[in-house]
Design goal:
- The chain is of the alpha/beta class.
- The protein is about 45% helix and about 15% strand.
- It contains eight helices and six strands; from the N terminus they run αββααβαβααββαα.
- The chain has a six-stranded mixed beta sheet, sandwiched between helices.
- β5 and β6 form a beta hairpin.
- The radius of gyration is 15 Å and the shape is globular.
- The structure holds uracil and iron/sulfur cluster (SF4).
- Uracil (URA) binds next to loops.
- The site of uracil has 13 residues, from loops.
């Protein structure tokens, strides 16, 4: 547990707890408002994220920003975005269970500093790690689950939407549900 963001970010940037540290250009700690009530969690950095040291800055990030904007969410204003693993897996493969397990402490520390009311998992990997190991993303996206006083929801990963644009309307409904839940809870 860290008492400041500076301490957490500095420690995370020099992490060598798993093998993913070997191929990285930058550790992608996360970005956004540390006072956000809503936290988004992706899977892990891709090429652009690794090069720039920020989450969701490639093509899937542009799509994510568009969907966020449509429900008045903005990574520079009212959300925080992090990932299950902070270093890019080679060729963007899924992070291995042991890599996720080593890295999850960073996310937990981020959660403890932010204390969000809602966590949105971006895609299957984050949903299986944070909601339930047998989470079924196509069946259960858009539903809210309560865990330890925090509301959790998963939506389809924007990279999956780029591969499969037919699913965009149904993913967008998840964002509308998120907005409705925020309004219900009085979150800006
Ligand atoms: N995909 C993710 O899951 N996370 C990122 O930061 C970028 C792409
Ligand atoms: Fe550390 Fe996570 Fe990077 Fe592995 S992926 S080296 S645990 S920061």
């Amino acid at each position: 547990m860290y008492s400041t963001w500076e301490e957490l970010e500095n420690a995370c940037r020099s992490c060598t707890k798993c093998g993913l540290c070997e191929g990285r250009t930058n550790v992608v700690v996360g970005m956004g408002n540390p006072q956000a009530k809503v936290m988004f969690v992706g899977e892990g950095p891709g090429e652009q994220e690794d090069l720039q040291g920020k989450p969701f800055v490639g093509r899937s990030g542009q799509l994510l920003d568009k969907m966020l904007d449509a429900v008045d969410l903005d990574r520079n204003r009212n959300i925080y975005i992090g990932n299950i693993v902070k270093c890019r897996p080679p060729k963007n493969r899924d992070p291995l269970p042991e890599e996720q397990e080593m890295c999850i402490d960073w996310l937990r520390d981020q959660f403890l500093l932010i204390r969000p009311k809602i966590i949105v998992c971006l895609g299957r990997i984050a949903a299986m790690k944070l909601i339930r190991p047998d989470f079924h993303i196509m069946k259960e996206h858009g539903q809210f689950f309560e865990k330890g006083g925090v509301l959790m929801m998963a939506t389809l990963h924007p990279a999956a939407l780029l591969r499969n644009p037919n699913n965009k309307p149904s993913a967008f409904e998840d964002f509308l549900k998120l907005r409705a839940k925020m309004d219900e809870l009085g979150i800006e």
